[in-house]
Each structure stands twice: as structure tokens, then as C-alpha cells.
Amino acid sequence: MAAWLIVTARVPDRDAFMASGYPQAAAKIQAQFGGEYIIRGPGGTVLEGPGEDGASVVVTQWKDREAALAFWNSPEYAEAKKLREGLAEVSVTLVGA
What we know:
This protein is α+β, with helices and mostly antiparallel strands. It has helices spanning about 15-20, 20-30, 65-70, 75-80; strands at about 5-10, 35-40, 55-60, 90-95. A four-stranded antiparallel beta sheet has the order 2-3-1-4. The termini are close together.
């Protein structure tokens, strides 16, 4: 059964974030692990709960939970995440079997 990673990120300086190399590195590694972007964009509007208006939202689809976790826990992605340190406050949720 499919699984999804749902990411909400507060990105105060979008230009610095985009120039960090993180978006490009994450996309490359995600593709290597079989992930597919479903949604990838800024400007979310919070309708309920503690989220933040204007946050970026990214949803990726995976063949199953194990594939998503293989990506998330990979050494390659651990290195890529370092590129966004100090540039984004990120919340990630994994759903699906």
C-alpha cells in the first residue's frame, strides 16, 4: 500500500533556501529511492490548528512505508538535510501502510 511523506516548512528567506542546494539534492535523492512529488509549493493557508500561513507544503508518494523510511533514514538524505539547517523549520508526517 502506498505511503506519503507530508512536509510543512516555515521558510523565512526563500531565496537563501532555494540557493542552499537542498531542494535540488532532496529531489535527486528522493527519485533514487522511488519517491514522487504530489505537491511542492509555498503559500499554504491554515484552516485549523497550529500551522503557519504561508508555509511551504511538500507531499511525496512512495510505494510503501518501508520505501519512504529507507529514503528518510538514508545517509544520503541525512547529508542533504544539513543544507537546510537554519533556513527552515520543518514538520514531517508519514502516513500509509
